[in-house]
Design a protein that fits this description.
three-stranded mixed β-sheet, Porin, about 180 residues
């Protein structure tokens, strides 16, 4: 009789305890719109809108970056000094889960672009706008508690189309709150 009672208690404890872990987060399901901040290139205010569980639109307004410069021969190089400029980016993202337990870890890949204005290119004022085609690849981490928070790491290799062609990589580390 003791074994039956012990087995019943263990079965009930396992069943009740496992129901709370069925869903790791509400991000991307019942909470589809998020706003946050991103550090590095570009440092930006960012947003994300889930179209469904696997498709999302990512957008942002950047206000700081490393900048690109030209030498006396007209060759492009990274200045490696912080420049203040304004940029906007917009990407389509496809996401798939890797792990979904107490936390959910997704990977994403996408396509989009970024446009930088004013002093991004230092070339005696000849370039006021720069256009960057990019392919963001990243990891998104969401939590069971708080269920409205997402952190991410993203690397976006791409090509500066205007003014001259040049390869570059955007790197961002950010956090979003979902509503």
């Amino acid at each position: 009789m003791k074994r039956v009672i012990l087995f019943t208690v263990l079965l009930l404890a396992t069943t009740v305890g496992s129901t709370g872990m069925a869903r790791a987060t509400e991000v991307g399901t019942s909470r589809t719109f998020g706003l946050g901040v991103q550090l590095f290139e570009p440092t930006a205010l960012i947003g994300k809108l889930f179209l469904d569980r696997n498709d999302a639109l990512d957008f942002g307004m950047g206000f700081w970056g490393y900048g690109r410069c030209y030498d006396n021969n007209g060759n492009l190089y990274a200045c490696n000094s912080g420049n203040q400029y304004f940029s906007v980016h917009f990407d389509y993202l496809y996401e798939e889960p890797i792990v979904e337990t107490v936390v959910r870890l997704d990977w994403h890949v996408g396509a989009g672009g970024r446009m930088a204005f004013n002093s991004y290119y230092n070339n005696n004022g000849r370039h006021d706008v720069a256009i960057f085609a990019r392919v963001p690849i990243g990891l998104d981490l969401t939590f069971r508690r708080p269920h409205w928070l997402e952190t991410y790491l993203e690397v976006a290799p791409g090509l500066w189309i205007v003014p001259p062609l040049a390869f570059d990589i955007d790197v961002g580390l950010g956090v979003r709150a979902y509503f």
